[in-house]
Design brief:
binds farnesyl diphosphate; 6-stranded parallel beta sheet; alpha/beta; Undecaprenyl pyrophosphate synthetase; 10 helices
Length: about 250
């Protein structure tokens, strides 16, 4: 089998997705299939987060956004929510040096004010310390929902219009984009979802309007560098048409 380093180098010969979003699903089922607790599944999933982030950086992605905790996940059993918050804090502490040493900019999107202070504080500190890094932007979607994000943007724009700072009839896509939590991030080119489920589950709804979707049966704890490379290779096989005909996109109008 081809070594992973060669696979990663080969991907660089063709256009890469600039921004990859990942719906990290299947931690619970991975654990249950092994007679382990759901929380152990999340723990193994956080090892995948580390490996996939490293691989994404090596391949040269500009932005990687990981759906780590949805707005709806607050309704899970309190002990699971608490364990996920503990894991996030542990991750932010343990990975701090690696993120800074590798020029990664850590970013977060979501209703971050809902996070407990023991997660928000290391998150904000690493976000501030890595803000000048230019290697890759790693965004954690935390307490995130695409509808919630669009609603917050609509509220902000409505207030701006009420205050006379914006003319409603002059509103542009750019204005809406600038009001989203993902302001400044490139459009999402590829969304990957693990564990065999085929839905977006409120993830980056506006941003992934033209994203290619890759679904894999692999559970998140088993998704590592190789599986990321396979998903990027699948993306590189796709023809992106943005509403045009095949002939137009191939430059044969
Ligand atoms: C979905 O699997 C996964 C989550 C709700 C949480 C994702 C969290 C991690 C990968 C670990 C912590 C994150 C970081 C950034 C360190 P599921 O529990 O819904 O799985 P199931 O569908 O099999 O039950």
């Amino acid at each position: 089998m081809e070594p992973i380093s060669e696979f990663e180098s080969r991907l660089k010969e063709r256009p890469l997705p600039q921004h990859v979003g990942v719906i990290m699903d299947g931690n619970g089922r991975w654990a249950e299939a092994r007679g382990r607790t759901r929380i152990e599944g999340h723990r193994e999933g956080s090892n995948s987060v580390r490996e996939v982030t490293r691989a994404a950086r090596r391949v040269g992605l500009e932005a990687l956004t990981l759906y780590a905790f949805s707005a709806q996940n607050w309704a899970r059993p309190p002990e699971e929510v608490a364990a996920l918050m503990d894991l996030l804090r542990e991750y932010l502490t343990r990975e701090r040096a690696e993120i800074l040493d590798n020029g990664i900019r850590l970013h977060a999107v979501g209703a971050l004010d809902k996070l407990p202070a023991y997660v928000r504080e290391p998150l904000e500190s690493l976000r501030a310390e890595s803000a000048g890094n230019t290697g890759m932007t790693l965004t954690l979607a935390l307490s995130y929902g695409g509808r919630e994000e669009l609603l917050a943007a609509a509220r902000a724009l409505a207030c701006a219009a009420r205050d006379g700072a914006l003319k409603p009839e002059a509103l542009t896509e750019g204005d809406l984009e600038a009001a989203l939590w993902t302001k400044g991030l490139p459009p999402v080119d590829l969304v990957i979802r693990t564990s065999g489920e085929k839905r977006l589950s409120n993830f980056l709804l506006w941003q992934s309007a033209y994203a290619e979707l890759v679904f894999t049966d692999v559970m998140w704890p088993d998704f590592r560098a190789l599986q990321l490379c396979e998903a990027i290779a699948a993306f590189q096989q796709r023809e992106r048409r943005y509403g045009l005909t095949g002939a137009q996109t191939q430059g044969q109008t």
